[in-house]
Amino acid sequence: MNWNQIETGWTSYTANAKQQWSKLSDEQLSGTAGKREQLAAKVQEAYGISKEESERQISDWQGRQVEQKPAAK
Fold it and tell me: Contact, 7 vs 34, CB < 8 A?
């Protein structure tokens, strides 16, 4: 899955992101608006890890995401 899909549908992925990074508040997650750089900075700050480690965690998490299908009408 490419990051553009995650960014575009960020509200669908915030629950999964919250499970991964429970130290981040809902406001922090929604405030990133799915921007990878902003998410990496928040993860780095909250967990006291390096930029490289936060990027690795995000890449791992990204690889586990499946495309969210739009809700049926």
Answer: yes
Interatomic CA distance for residues 50 and 19, integer angstroms: 20
Give the separation between CA 1 and CA 66, rounded to whole angstroms.
7
User: Phi, psi (5° rounding) for residue 62?
Assistant: -55, -40
Instruction: With beta carbons less than 8 A apart as the criterion, state whether 34 and 40 touch.
Output: no
- Position 12, amino acid: S
Q: How confident is the model at residue 52 (pLDDT cuts 50, 70, 90)?
A: very high
Q: Which two tokens stand for residue 63?
A: 């690889």
pLDDT range class, residue 70, cuts 50, 70, 90: low
Quote the longest CA-to-CA distance of the chain.
Answer: 43
